[in-house]
Amino acid sequence: MSIFRQIRSDWIAHQRDWSRHGFWALMVYRFGNWRYGIRPRALRMPFSFAYRVLHFISISLCGIELPCEVKLGDRFVIEHVGGIVISGDAVFGEDCVIRNGVTVGLRHRGQRGSPCIGDRVDIGAGAKLLGPIRIGNDVAIGANAVVLCDVPDGCVAVGIPARILSRRSHDVPTVEAGMEDLVLR
Question: Could you give the domains of the chain?
Answer without folding.
Answer: 3-166 (2.160.10.10)
